[in-house]
């Protein structure tokens, strides 16, 4: 896919926040989940970043990356413990005060009842004038500020909260087809290059399948126009047969 076709589509950056991800204690499944959802909606993920629970780094990355994409999705660091710095970092990144959000406080008091305390209510301290993202499972909301969607790092919570924001995201057609072959990459690399030049709006990928006894490589053909995918595949197959 050429640069011009990428730029005509909405872009997204996924920002994963957490020392536990960086040091390997916790497996990051959240960015994989989001990348898949965004891919299926025709939104191009242009970066996936993992950063520590360090407020200065979070602020820097939020400011920098929110300016170069249509949507920034942050996950992690919005709980009540001292290492949860994301709420403050987003407030600072956009030069906003961190304030007790009345609606978030109401929701949390209603959900927690007698268990509510000031520690839990920290999760209602949010950047001023942000929009809440409902949390169906534990009440503590995420929030939207500018083009940033700020979500928790717990996979079960994040996945349920994705459903609360899905309607806010564009959904554009994307078509992908796969082709398996017994040829090796060195056999068809020049063909792939020629077809890619002829169909610049089609992204062609080649993936070795070393452990699969039935074929040697799998190719994917992806575009926003189904006819171009079909044409590129047909051209590739024709040239492959003529080898």
What does this structure look like?
- The protein folds into 2 domains: 3-168, Molybdenum Cofactor Biosythetic Enzyme, Chain A (3-Layer(aba) Sandwich); 175-241, Ribosomal Protein S8, Chain: A, domain 1.
- 40% of the residues lie in helices and 23% in strands.
- It has 10 helices and 11 strands.
- It is elongated and about 75 Å long.
- The model is unreliable at 1-7 (pLDDT under 50).
Provide a concise account of the structure shown.
With 243 residues, the chain is α/β, with parallel strands linked by helices. It has helices spanning 3-7, 19-22, 30-40, 55-66, 86-93, 102-112, 118-121, 155-165, 185-198, 226-241; strands at 11-17, 44-51, 71-75, 98-100, 125-127, 131-133, 142-145, 148-151, 175-181, 203-208, 217-223.
* Poorly predicted ranges: 1-7
Percent in helix: 25-40%
> Sheet bearing the most strands, described?
6 strands, mixed
The fraction of residues assigned to DSSP E strands is 15-25%
Q: What value does the Rg take, in angstroms? A: 22 Å
Task: Choose one word for the global shape.
Answer: elongated
Structural class of the helix and strand makeup? alpha/beta
CATH topology of the largest domain: Molybdenum Cofactor Biosythetic Enzyme, Chain A
Please count the beta strands (DSSP E, at least 2 residues each).
Answer: 11
Task: Please report the first level of CATH classification, the CATH class of the largest domain.
Answer: Alpha Beta
Query: In the residues, how many domains can be counted?
Result: 2
| Distance N to C terminus | 25 Å
Output mean pLDDT. 93
Element order: H for helix, E for strand: HEHHEHEHEHHEEEEHEHEEH
H/I helix tally: 10
Order of strands across the biggest sheet?
Answer: 2-1-3-8-7-6
């Amino acid at each position: 896919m050429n640069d011009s076709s990428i730029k005509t589509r909405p872009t997204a950056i996924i920002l994963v926040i957490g020392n536990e991800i960086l040091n390997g204690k916790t497996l990051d499944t959240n960015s994989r989940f989001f990348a898949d959802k965004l891919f299926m909606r025709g939104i191009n993920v242009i970066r996936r970043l993992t950063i520590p629970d360090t407020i200065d780094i979070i602020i820097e990355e939020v400011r920098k990356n929110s300016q170069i994409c249509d949507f920034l999705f942050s996950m992690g660091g919005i709980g009540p413990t001292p290492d949860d710095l994301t709420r403050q970092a987003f407030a600072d990144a956009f030069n906003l005060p961190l304030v007790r959000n009345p609606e978030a406080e109401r929701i949390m008091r209603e959900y927690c009842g007698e268990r509510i305390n000031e520690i839990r209510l920290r999760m209602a301290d949010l950047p001023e004038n942000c929009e809440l993202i409902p949390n169906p499972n534990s009440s503590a909301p995420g929030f939207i500020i500018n083009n940033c969607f700020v979500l928790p790092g717990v996979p079960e919570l994040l996945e349920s909260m994705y459903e609360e924001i899905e309607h806010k995201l564009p959904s554009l057609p994307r078509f992908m087809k796969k082709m398996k072959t017994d040829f090796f990459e060195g056999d068809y690399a020049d063909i792939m290059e020629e077809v890619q030049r002829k169909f610049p709006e089609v992204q062609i990928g080649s993936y070795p399948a070393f452990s699969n006894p039935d074929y040697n490589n799998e190719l994917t053909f992806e575009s926003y126009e189904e006819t171009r995918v079909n044409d590129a595949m047909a051209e590739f197959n024709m040239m492959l047969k003529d080898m």
